[in-house]
Design brief:
Mean pLDDT of chain A: 90
Low-confidence stretches of chain B: none
Largest sheet of chain B: 6 strands, parallel
Order of helices and strands of chain A: EHEHEHEHEHEHEEHEEEH
Distance between the termini of chain B: 46 Å
CATH class of the largest domain in chain A: Alpha Beta
Radius of gyration of chain B: 22 Å
Oligomer: heterodimer
Number of domains of chain B: 2
CATH architecture of the largest domain in chain B: 3-Layer(aba) Sandwich
Largest interface: A-B, 20 and 18 residues
Largest sheet of chain A: 6 strands, parallel
Strand content of chain B: 25-35%
CATH topology of the largest domain in chain B: Rossmann fold
Structural class of chain A: alpha/beta
CATH class of the largest domain in chain B: Alpha Beta
Order of helices and strands of chain B: EHEHEHEHEHEHEEEEEH
Number of strands of chain A: 11
Low-confidence stretches of chain A: none
Helix content of chain A: 25-40%
Strand order of the largest sheet of chain A: 3-2-1-4-5-6
Shape of chain A: elongated
Mean pLDDT of chain B: 89
CATH superfamily of the largest domain in chain A: NAD(P)-binding Rossmann-like Domain
Number of helices of chain B: 7
CATH architecture of the largest domain in chain A: 3-Layer(aba) Sandwich
Strand order of the largest sheet of chain B: 3-2-1-4-5-6
Chain lengths: ~220, ~220
């Protein structure tokens, strides 16, 4: 694949190295030469200094033959504009932008851009680490579905996975224990210190937390 | 008219002042608190301290009922996003965005900003005109550069001197707009006779410019 990455931040440079290592053609653009230095000597893609929505620079970067375009600078507005330039002017098949501000992310998603916004996700993960003792949640990007982790205590030990599941609302998909990770059968028994990972409907989250005594 | 201005730097400030005198209802959005306080003391307009890229701030500034939004900050990114948000969320009829970097003009136009105003380009052109001694200056381009207004100074050796306008064969899609003769501005009619030293303001499709100048100056 021919991929253009705008913004050689930590995320941008990691992504560039990852893709380049897998054999993809990668071009990275950043405003500062210093950020491009993050790519190191082993990076064998192309790096360019400049503005990520400069039409001429993008042409120079080969955007007309790009399969994918990803913007991850620290500026939300820059990302939103660069993504629109790639999509509307150059019709790049895959365009992805990071946007920190949840509100702007929401608006532009509605306008048809593919946007990843880690802010709410990361904040809620941190919140859970701080507030909850037996419970962690990972919101899946749609906000309708989440993944939660529950530490098994007496109330759950000895029950089967089937008994723990709540039809239509919560289902255990994996169990982590000291011996590793297993994908359970309905009859698998929950043991002490097991960590149950399950998919939950966000609308049912409170109900599930209450059921397992972790509200 | 109700106008919301985002960005109260030099451009935003003078724009607000002019529009306000012209009896328009103006509100201003500005990030810097001190600037907001200074303006609030001087002009009787609504001043909102905040980021114009935040829909709640735009709403507070009254974008819902505004006829026009003018995003005139020093950042092209911000100006584009402000205009887009205003159009998408509040259906503002007319969005005007200041282009700081002429390279971004196309991006403004392609991303749906109704009127991109490229101040750098305009100032550059005016200065170019003042410093150059050429007979011909491109004053302004419209319609994304397809249509241009040019000024041509007629020198004594111009082939059209002492001719009536109706006897001059202008290229297709070109028109004389006015003739500046000393202090006088003449609206060109068929019988108007051109003289040496006349400044001719003409409009032409960009492809026909050279032909027009050829006609008037006799070289190039």
């Amino acid at each position: 694949m021919y991929v253009i990455i705008i913004g050689c931040s930590r995320v941008g440079s990691e992504l560039a190295k990852l893709l380049s290592h897998e054999g993809h053609d990668v071009v990275v653009i950043d405003k500062n030469q210093a950020s491009l230095d993050r790519l190191g000597n082993s990076f064998n893609g192309v790096s360019l200094v400049g503005n990520g929505f400069d039409v001429n620079l993008l042409k120079q970067a080969g955007i007309e033959k790009a399969d994918a375009f990803c913007v991850v600078t620290n500026g939300d507005n820059t990302n939103l504009i660069a993504a629109q330039v790639a999509k509307k002017i150059f019709k790049v098949p895959k365009v992805i932008a990071r946007v920190y501000d949840p509100q702007r992310a929401h608006i532009y998603k509605a306008l048809g851009l593919d946007i990843l916004s880690g802010t709410v996700l990361f904040a809620s993960m941190l919140r859970d680490k701080i507030v909850e003792s037996r419970f962690t949640s990972y919101l899946i990007e749609t906000k309708d579905l989440g993944v939660i982790e529950i530490e098994a205590q007496k109330d759950l030990v000895g029950k089967t996975v089937e008994q723990v599941n709540v039809s239509g609302e919560f289902i255990v998909v994996a169990i982590r224990s000291l011996s590793g990770v297993l994908i359970p059968d309905p009859k698998t028994l929950v043991k002490e210190k097991d960590i149950l990972m399950g998919v939950v409907k966000v609308a049912s989250l409170d109900k599930i937390k209450e059921k397992f005594g972790i509200a | 008219m109700k106008i919301v201005i985002v960005g109260a730097g030099k451009v935003g400030y003078y724009l607000a002042k002019r529009l306000y005198r012209g009896k328009h209802t103006v509100s201003i959005v500005e990030k810097d608190k001190q600037t907001c306080e200074d303006i609030a003391k001087e002009l009787e307009v609504l001043v909102i301290n905040g980021d114009g890229c935040d829909p709640a701030i735009l709403e507070e500034a009254g974008v819902k009922h505004a006829d026009v939004i003018a995003a005139v900050t020093g950042e092209d990114e911000d100006n584009i996003i402000v205009c887009q948000l205003s159009k998408e969320l509040f259906h503002t009829r007319r969005t005007v965005g200041r282009v700081n970097n002429p390279d971004n003009e196309r991006v403004f136009a392609e991303l749906g900003i109704d009127v991109p105003v490229d101040a750098t380009m305009i100032i550059g052109k005016i200065i170019e005109e003042e410093v150059s001694f050429s007979d011909f200056v491109n004053l302004m381009s419209f319609k994304r550069g397809k249509l241009a207004i040019v000024r041509v100074d007629l020198s004594a050796d111009s082939p059209v001197i002492h001719k009536k306008i109706k006897d001059i064969e202008l290229p297709k899609d070109a028109a004389l707009v006015s003739i500046v003769r000393g202090e006088e501005v003449i609206l060109p009619k068929g019988n108007t006779v051109l003289e040496a030293g006349d400044d001719i303001i003409a409009m032409a499709m960009v492809g026909n410019e050279a032909q027009l100048i050829n006609m008037l100056v006799g070289k190039m």
